[in-house]
Design brief:
This protein is mostly helical. Helix content is 70%, strand content 4%. The chain is built from four helices and two strands, in the order H-E-E-H-H-H. Strands 1-2 form a two-stranded antiparallel sheet. A hairpin with a 5-residue loop joins strand 1 and strand 2. Helix 2 packs across helix 3. The longest helix has 30 residues. The radius of gyration is 16 Å and the shape is globular. The mean pLDDT is 90.
């Protein structure tokens, strides 16, 4: 869904105490909507912005609302960029 390897998710679960999915039989993890939103925030801070895990943890705990707004803005801008690149590619083919 987000493109993160399961091993990375497991590591993030240890690094971020608030990320605790429910486990069903056979240790199958069930992520809630809130868990997925937190994973997206972590992904944005660590993979997109390049922060270390400790810095990402501090950023989320200090001002989660601001981090969520920035993450949504980055996702929106990325999707707009991708659409514009697709339109440019179509125009170049004409």
């Amino acid at each position: 869904m987000i493109g993160v390897e399961p091993s990375t998710l497991r590591y993030w679960e240890k690094a971020f105490p608030s990320l605790q999915p429910k486990t069903a039989g056979n240790n199958v993890r069930q992520y809630t909507k809130e868990n997925i939103e937190l994973i997206r925030l972590i992904y944005n801070l660590v993979k997109v912005r390049g922060l270390k895990l400790e810095a990402a943890r501090k950023e989320i705990s200090a001002n989660r609302g601001v981090v969520e707004k920035k993450a949504r803005a980055i996702e929106l801008l990325t999707s707009v960029r991708d659409e514009l690149q697709a339109v440019k590619a179509q125009l170049d083919e004409l």
